[in-house]
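user: Please review this fold.
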Amino acid sequence: MRNIFFILLFIIETGTLLSQPVSLKGQFWTSGLTGNDPPTNRSSFESQFGYIPTLSMSHDLTSNNFVDLEWGYHLQRIYSGDSLVYNVEKPYRLWMRYSSERVEARLGMQKVTFGPAIVLRTLAWFDTIDPKDPTGQTDGVEAFRLRIFPTNSVAIWGWVMNSEQDTLSYGGRAELSNKLGEWGLTYHQDPTELGQSVGQFP
């Protein structure tokens, strides 16, 4: 078994490089490990580097609503010694959103998550977030997501998603916040799988 002798992980988020409403930020991480029993034809030292640049733009329509968009690209490489063994270059985020006091509509490649899934994995239907990973990264899904806030304690979700098989799935969620905590009831219908309906209390 390989032994990690050091790991360095950090996040860089630059401030706004251009005056609002355009901003550029990035997330960079690196790590390394070594061991005395590497696989055949592999070095005993392995290193990893990654960077996700993100460009954001926004425009106020009125004092209470606005539109914005975000683009991100995932770059990652893993080396065994000097040899490249793993390479990722792919879109990470590309979405446009309309927001007001009571409505939020977002279209494109985005993160859809219902909160931390440390106890209930059903909260992680659409994300791959590892609670132990400080970067909080997850692949995006192609979707249209609508959220309505009738009151400050109630939220209603609706979504349509495009899967890797190029089929559409849909679902919805109702959330209630009170003194006892946050409660949610979620339904999702995917033509390639059985439908799911479950109560959730993170």
Q: What stands out?
A: The CA atoms of residues 69 and 96 lie 4 Å apart.
